[in-house]
Amino acid sequence: MAExxxxxxxxxxxxxxxxxxxxxxxxxxxxxxxxxVDIVEFREAIDDKxxxxxxAFIEGAFTRESDRKRLETIRSKAxxxxxxxxxxxxxxLNVLKNFRGLEKSMKTVYGDSADWYETSQALPVExxxxxxxxxxxxxxxxxxxxxxxxxxxxxxxxxxxDHPVCVECKLRENECLYHKSQYCMxxxxxxxxDAWCPSYGGRCYACRGLISDxxxxxxxxxxxxxxxxxxxxxxxxxxxxxxxxxxxxxxxARVEKQ
Length: 258
Ligand code: SF4
Ligand code: SF4
Ligand code: SF4
Fold this sequence. Notes:
The chain contains twelve helices and five strands. Helices cover 38% and strands 11% of the residues.
């Protein structure tokens, strides 16, 4: 009798679904993956539903209290849960609404119909359930998704980088943006994107979250050297990492700055 293949599933919460599209964009490797697993739920591609999954990938942030039950159900049916992308790993851009204020955000988006919709603080998936692994980024780098899938299928722990983007940036021999008087979160941001943004002239906003042991003093020294204060950088910090912001609660003045 043929041995059954591991089952994997994809689930989406509050997100743009761009990370699931990155999965579909793994065209060359997807055929190999499909040969090794059964994809039993994936709204972007199939209609099927399953009772259990070996690995469940969850995209999107936890932004409504009613999400909790659905997340718990996925957790109860899954052997391994992987958060897919910044929305799921840190809450991503969705967390900006926490600083703006839920009522104000709802009015901006839905106008007079704001009361029809449910909302709550935007949070990472792990605020509701245990997450075993994270694929970071907005969107996720395809190679990191493939590393996680192939590692889990081989029964080994995926290698997720935990060093700063600056390391990759220097390897690419980019001129540092600080030398052009621009702020960049590279010293605190988790590598693994091959320094995408600085390599194309943009700043790093740490869409891949923060390294687990950031050298805060070195980062503060850099800010001081270039005449920047913590307040100068908070707005950019909150773009993807507002969930880690332990500064004063947002004031109206700061909200207006956003
Ligand atoms: S992390 Fe970015 S690309 Fe991925 S679902 Fe969220 S907003 Fe979209
Ligand atoms: S440009 Fe950004 S990522 Fe690159 S070395 Fe400078 S601070 Fe680091
Ligand atoms: S350089 Fe920074 S913002 Fe750009 S993809 Fe990498 S971690 Fe994200």
